[in-house]
Amino acid sequence: MNKKRLFTKSVVAMAVAVSSQQALAAGFQLNAQSATGLGRAFAGDAVIADNASAMARNAAAMSLFDAPALSLGINAIDTDIEVKNTTYSQVLPLGDSQVGDTSYAPNIYYIHPINDKWTVGTGLYSNFGTKTEFGDNFAGNEFGGSTDVKSINLALSTAYRINQAWSVGAGLDVIYGEGKLKRTNKKLEAGIAQKIGVQGPLLDIDADGFALGWNVGTVYEYNDNNRFGLSYRYSPDLKAKGDMQYQLGGGDISHEKLIMPLPDMAEFSGFHQLNEKFAVHYSVQWINWSEFSQLETSGNKVLNRYEWQDGWHYALGGTYTMNKDWTLRAGYMFDTSAQDQRTSISVPDSDRQWLSGGFTYHLDTKSNIDVGVTYLMGKDVEAVETNGTTSVNATTRANALLYGVQYSRSF
To answer: Which of 4, 189, 212, 405 is 20 to 30 Å from the Cα of 70, by its Cα?
Structure first.
């Protein structure tokens, strides 16, 4: 096999892996299921149940509703991703790049109590997704390029009240994932181009697929003012198929499927109404990133290997009922990185801090508007990538501004 073909295969393996990292890395897990949760850093979301979006975190929380409830809204994720002090193949300084973009995550939920024991619900929202794009003039676009990943989760859930204290719930998750990925190298210094023998388009992928997951949960109500929630979500391997083209003789793998493991998640939440005005709430969430050890195809081609670690979210929040019209909330989350030894310029990942605030305006006794805002702060990370022929070294930082609005109504 000649050097050109070896190089192209190496680039494709790396680039396809990056596309899935974009959907799975902790920095791009979409904690964007509701504007209400966004305003408190999702602290207590598996048990608060102040509107129908509660079913996204814990199906058992639907038992806390005694009337049909509807919620619909949209969250925006405005990422500020900086790649600086970049050197390409140890000889070409590239300067700084801003590669973030704005993504939107709409959501809708409906919960319907059947009787005193049974409740059913359905929801449409997203758990994963991102969009990043390096400029055409970035020399290392076999590592950068453009990535656009989206996922949609259709939830079908039911809850059962065992007694006054205990409720349980379960649901099915129909997950649709879509990814568009381009990798190219339009700009090369003459010496590097001569060394690797490659210049021009390298990869163009447009693939999608479905997967079926499930979730279970429980709620324990100690009394009217104190309750706890626990949930577990099984996330399956998503198999994506579509147009997957190599350039420059690399071949066509459109007949195969990309197998992308999605992480399982578990969450524990508590809620405590301290008095008629103020409540505190908290959550601890575990995300099984270590399951994503490698990316392979249905033809048993291992495209990339990983050394990821499980992630954790620790969130604390408070809710203040100002009067019958206004409710204020705030929260803080510490979010640990999924990456350990391996880093990437296209997946700037680090431990993060969330600072969140929001409010509810009650239009009347049955309907309200929620607004939530979060500023997510990352840290500088030294990233080094290589495909065996070229390499890139850089310092990355990923910050983000998340904001959302939501309408909720009970019937």
So the answer is: 212
